[in-house]
Design a protein that fits this description.
33 helices, about 775 residues, about 70% helix, mainly alpha, Tetratricopeptide repeat protein
């Protein structure tokens, strides 16, 4: 800007006038500088400030850039305004002193002049200054000036309102939604009820509320949604439910979600009532809503005219009240799917929105009312849509669940697994996926199981494919040639390596039947190989390691289905555990479990009968082990000897009789001892699994017979010479000793006693 220090106002004006014809820009700059450096009264009679100042400001506005000239002019405008307004301009808010809701003059002082502009030169000047401030973009000064103008020129309200509309449109275009809403709200107070800004303000308020709602549902995504009017059903439903609308106004996320849940509860109750009364409720707008258009066009940079373009779309609340109850959940389903897909595109992995998107669409597309609302009565077209949309969502769970499992993100994997499992199980389980959030009652009414069947089947196949892929990977480790070559003889595959892969998945929560069945089967084969090389400690360890997989598998299976592989592997596991558990109650319990899981395995019946029989005879064995032979024999007397248990019965009786005979022999009760031992020999032919029983019994009986013979021999030795009775005793002793030697030829004592007895008989004769 040209500098002319010390030059008075008259000379400045003359200099500017001389330049005006050949260099208007320099003339304007010179005047601007002069006005900034001199008091306005110095130009009295020299310049028409009412004409010059607006022209200078207009040049700045047309240049569309703010520099020191604009700053200087803004200072001039404020200085002139301060001279006209006692106490200076106050504040820069939008709703200032004396302005009330209808945009008319308020209760402020009216001493500035008559009510009309024509009767108050100060009012006209303030108005001109306000236009200048607008042109310079000094909105704080412009607002303050317009409020003062309205005190003396109430008819200027629409002009000020149009200016605020323009600013609101500019703010909206710049993404400043809150500022735009405030500006248009202030404009609405100034403009008549039929002005389009009122309708547009409704849309902006809805936009603001929907931004709050979307931010509560999808934190971090609200700014990315395409607006406006796309979520018409959501907007209308929220507006019709005051508690939700007020929560949105307060921008309280927790309250918003709580009231949304209540709204969906009400929607579900209305749907149930409509179903009971036979009213389908298909009366309202079934689409995405009206076309909201842009938020407005800034138009000319000036403040004249109408600078806001507003949509013609209007909301009929009465129609909204009759909307189809599936319209709102449909909108929510669309939103959740869009956000889920956007998250995958942006992050490479889905966020939490994928589960409710899957649940909502699976339920909606199986709801007869959805197809009635959509106007689709072509069954094949409906089936194709179900296949495409639900198949896409379920496949995402399958793919990203497997990826999460591979990298150890157990929580993410569990989320995808839970969703696929729920859809496979049916509508009730799928609805339960929404139970913990605001969408619990989102899909009202009954879902048709037949329409849901494809989704359930598809989820089941994807789970099977997922499990099969994991088993295939584990099998490659099991059959690794290098690892197999290092295994002990008898173990043909590296089951341990494959089990480790399956176990890692199971520990993260991925435990479908296929995976668990394979894990149990590999444990069975592993321990069977160790059994073949008699590594009993290793067998017991492998069986113990299998129990965790067995318990998880049993939870998902049903007994008495021997045609299923999972039942067969469970039965084999319990059979092996039962055989290793001894002969007691635990063995019987495990074998009974084996039979329950796989009743077709007849080997189990054989072992179970044996263990049950063993259990009956266990008291006999315990008595015999404790040398309580009389109790053992008494217990046997209480057991019925049948064809099924005869072999065990005979063996246990022989054992008890043998023990008792030996004991009585030691106690020299020869009659009882002989009776017991001879009965043992009577039973011995039926006992084929005790090769020493006869030999041991004959040896004991030989000792007993020798002892009997000794008694007779001693009696003969003490008898008088020629006593015939003693001779008969010696003859009886000789017979006993001969039998003793027959039964146990190695009994040297009996042999010596036999020789002595025969000598005694010879002397007697």
């Amino acid at each position: 800007m040209e500098m002319l220090p010390g030059v008075g106002a008259p000379l400045l004006v003359a200099r500017a006038a001389a330049l005006a014809d050949r260099d208007l820009a320099r003339a304007a700059a010179l005047l601007t500088r002069g006005l900034a450096e001199h008091a306005p009264e110095e130009f009295d009679g020299l310049l028409d400030l009412g004409a010059v100042l607006p022209a200078l400001c207009a040049r700045i506005a047309r240049a569309k850039r703010r520099d020191e000239r604009g700053d200087a002019l803004a200072g001039i405008v404020r200085a002139l305004a301060d001279g006209l307004v006692p106490g200076g301009l106050v504040g820069d808010g939008l709703v200032g002193d004396g302005l009330v809701g209808d945009g008319r003059a308020g209760d402020g002082p009216a001493s500035d002049g008559p009510a009309g502009e024509g009767g108050d030169p100060a009012g006209s000047t303030l108005r001109t200054l306000a236009h200048c401030a607008v042109a310079l973009g000094d909105h704080g000064t412009a607002d303050a000036l317009w409020r003062r103008v309205l005190r003396v020129v109430p008819d200027a309200a629409q002009e000020y309102g149009a200016y605020l509309c323009h600013r609101g449109v500019v703010a909206h275009a710049a993404g400043e939604a809150a500022e735009a809403l405030d500006l248009l709200g202030a404009a609405a107070q100034l403009l008549p009820p039929d002005h389009p800004v009122h309708g547009h303000l409704v849309f902006l308020e809805r936009d603001d509320r929907m931004d709050v709602l979307l931010a509560a549902l999808f934190p971090g995504f609200a700014a990315e949604f395409e607006r406006r009017g796309r979520y018409h059903e959501l907007e209308v439903s929220a507006e019709l439910y005051p508690a939700l609308w007020h929560a949105l106004e307060r921008d309280e996320a927790a309250a918003v979600l709580r009231e949304l849940a209540t709204l969906l509860d009400i929607n579900a109750a209305d749907a149930a009532h409509a179903a009971d009364t036979g009213n389908s409720g298909d009366g309202g707008n079934s689409g995405d809503g009206g076309d909201g258009g842009d938020s407005g066009d800034g138009g000319d940079s000036g403040d004249g005219g109408n600078s806001v373009e507003v949509d013609d779309a209007e909301v009929d609340s009465a129609d909204a009240g009759r909307h189809n109850p599936l319209a709102l959940p449909h909108t929510l389903a669309v939103l959740h799917r869009e956000v889920a897909l956007a998250a995958i595109a942006r992050e490479g992995a889905p966020g939490p929105e994928l589960v409710p998107a899957t649940a909502l669409w699976s339920l909606l597309l199986a709801h007869p009312g959805f197809w009635a609302r959509a106007g689709i009565d072509d069954a094949e077209a409906a089936a194709e849509l179900r296949r495409d949309l639900i198949g896409e969502l379920l496949e995402l769970h399958r793919v990203h669940g497997a990826r999460a499992l591979d990298v150890g993100r157990a929580a993410d994997m569990a989320t995808h697994l839970r969703c696929l499992t729920a859809v496979r199980e049916g509508p009730d389980a799928t609805r339960a996926l929404l139970a913990d959030g605001p969408l619990a009652a989102a899909v009202p009414g009954a879902v048709d199981p037949k329409l849901f069947a494809w989704a359930a089947q598809r989820a089941g196949r994807l789970l099977d494919d997922w499990a099969a892929d994991l088993v295939r990977t584990a099998t490659e480790r099991v059959d690794d040639p290098d690892a197999v070559g290092r295994l002990p003889v008898g173990v043909e595959r590296d089951y341990e390596a494959g089990i480790e892969i399956l176990d890692a998945a199971v520990r993260q929560g991925f435990a479908p039947v296929t995976v668990l069945c394979t894990a149990v089967e590999w444990h069975n084969k592993w321990q069977y190989g160790l059994y073949s090389i008699s590594d009993w400690d290793a067998v017991a360890e492998v069986i113990e390691r299998a129990t965790r997989f067995v318990d998880l598998l049993a939870e998902q299976c049903t007994e008495n289905r021997p045609h299923l592989k999972e039942n067969q592997v469970l039965g084999f596991h319990y059979l092996e555990r039962g055989l290793l558990a001894g002969r007691g109650e635990e063995s019987v319990r495990l074998l009974e479990r084996a039979k329950a899981w796989d009743p077709g395995n007849h080997e189990v019946d054989k072992f179970l009968d044996q263990r049950r029989m063993d259990q009956v005879f266990d008291p006999v064995r315990e008595y015999t082990a404790d040398r309580r032979y009389d109790d053992a024999l008494a217990a046997l007397d209480r057991i019925r000897d049948t064809d099924a248990n005869h072999k065990t019965y005979v063996k246990l009786r022989a054992n008890a009789l043998y023990g008792k005979g030996k004991r009585e022999l030691s106690d020299r009760d020869f009659d009882v001892a002989e009776e017991c031992l001879r009965e043992v020999l009577d039973l011995a032919p039926e006992i084929t699994d005790d090769p020493t029983l006869v030999q041991d019994t004959n040896q004991a009986l030989s000792t007993l017979l020798n002892n009997r013979a000794v008694v007779l021999i001693k009696a003969a030795d003490n008898a008088p010479d020629g006593d015939t009775e003693s001779l008969l005793g010696l003859v009886a002793a000789r017979a006993l000793l001969r039998e003793a030697l027959d039964r146990h030829p190695a009994n040297q004592t009996a042999a010596d006693n036999l020789t002595g007895t025969e000598e005694r008989i010879t002397r007697f004769l």
